[in-house]
Design goal:
By secondary structure, the chain is mainly alpha-helical. Helix content is 58%, strand content 0%.
């Protein structure tokens, strides 16, 4: 989980940060030293392996990395649980999560040393709530009234699915990110 969280952090930095904030060589060393490429999904690795200039075109959609980082950080002890809502992660929450991840010159072990992992049961309870919300979104897409009237079904549905994906993956030992069960 720590490696996956750090891999998403590195991918986000590769696409969204200016090279002055996270120099190319330093970021590449961070990923290599911590063995983070295997913790990236195949599509994420393709983005990361591009030049930084080419990877920037993914900027409008890289916010999804933050949405997936939130549940992972929470599982490892971040105090604020991911919310079931149709609003993107706030800048304050994102900044607080980034502050809990070791700087680009530390290791997965450093993150694990500071982590206060939540129990399987606690994570499973939150994932179950996201499962129910995900099911409500899918039912709403079929025309049922299962979400509040003002709920942004498309964007909110994607947020719920992304956050649930991270939680479900944490509860699926041995499953790859791509093969994490997300049925409703």
């Amino acid at each position: 989980m720590a490696a996956r969280l750090m891999a998403l952090q590195a991918l986000y930095a590769w696409v969204a940060y200016d090279a002055r904030e996270a120099p190319d060589a330093r970021l590449r060393r961070y990923v290599q030293r911590n063995g983070l490429e295997p913790a990236m999904a195949a599509d994420e690795r393709r983005i990361y392996r591009q030049t930084r200039a080419r990877a920037r075109r993914y900027g409008p959609m890289i916010g999804w990395a933050l949405e997936m980082m939130w549940p992972l950080a929470w599982v490892l002890g971040f105090p604020t649980a991911p919310r079931i809502e149709d609003k993107a992660i706030t800048r304050a929450t994102s900044t607080a999560i980034q502050a809990t991840i070791p700087p680009l010159d530390l290791s997965v072990d450093a993150l694990l040393a500071r982590a206060r992992p939540r129990s399987y049961a606690v994570v499973a309870r939150l994932e179950d709530r996201f499962y129910c919300a995900h099911n409500a979104v899918r039912s709403a897409h079929l025309g049922r009234r299962t979400v509040p009237r003002d709920f942004d079904l498309d964007f909110g549905g994607l947020l719920i699915a992304a956050r649930r994906h991270a939680l479900a993956w944490c509860l699926s030992p041995g499953k790859s990110w791509a093969k994490t069960p997300l049925d409703t």
